[in-house]
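Escalated from tier 1: zinc ion holo job.
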Amino acid sequence: MSLSSRIYFPPLGLLCFISLTSSWSYLEPGGTIDWSSKNNTCDETFQSPIDIITSEAIDKRFPPFHMEHYSTTADGARIVNNGHTVEVHLNQSPAPTLSGGGLDGIYTAVQFHFHWGSSDNYGSEHFLDGNSFPMEMHIVHYSQKYPNISEALTKKNGLAVLAIFFEVTNCNNTEFQCIIKKLPSLRNPGFPTRVYCNLLKLLPKNFDDFFRYSGSLTTPPCSESVVWTVYPKAVKISSWQINQLRTQLIRIYDGDRTVLVNNFRGLQSRNNRRIYKSIIDSGATLPRQFSQLVFLLVMILSVANLELFSSAGVI
Ligand SMILES: [Zn+2]
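Tier 2 regenerated the structure:
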């Protein structure tokens, strides 16, 4: 996830170039590994993203999420190319809020953004069973226990992030067009503009089946303050749509202008963290559950046959 809460969004009509200075980049010579040389936290124990191994996750059924104002048209929301990603700031009233789902209290949504690769083979930050996805969306919330996101990110569980994978198909995702149609005006970093998206419709249909673990921001300062919710069921996006992201945005590093792609951090060690899965019937796990059921039935029938043959004196 990326935090750029220091960006100032002027009122509409006063939109102007905003100087975005950043102390980090995905293009540093040492890659994202080099971030720890300037931010000690990036080298700590409970970092993100991670590879989530379904078979090692602990079953735990969390209560359903409760989302408020997610479907409200985001009047007041602004979208910007911040030089690291395309990001939507939800400075609207009333703010979308998230509770339930095993979270401690109510969290306010402040922004969402994306990580993507230069091909369909990679791009997501989290992996699932060793597999990456071409894109991942992060919806960033902070706990209402704290007055603002800056203070929340210094606290354990101060932030809650929903992570949504995307997979590529031939059909456009009509809900994602709110982002795509803004890209031509976001080519250069730092020009925010108004956007209208229905956040609820960017989520997987079943948002109560998920993985849960404690981790960090995936960009400096890498604060270990995040309750992660990772959805196993990917949202679909077309090849044309993801290629708009790969080709229309520019970033500047060391004086060079390049297309904004591969804006994801490498995998971090799980370090014996507990990863929970709260999944009943997700399509992502259905085949495995189905195969287990078939195996059980075969075993029962085999035993029944053995007893039948045995009682008939065949064996
Ligand atoms: Zn992110």
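DSSP finds four helices and 16 strands in the chain.
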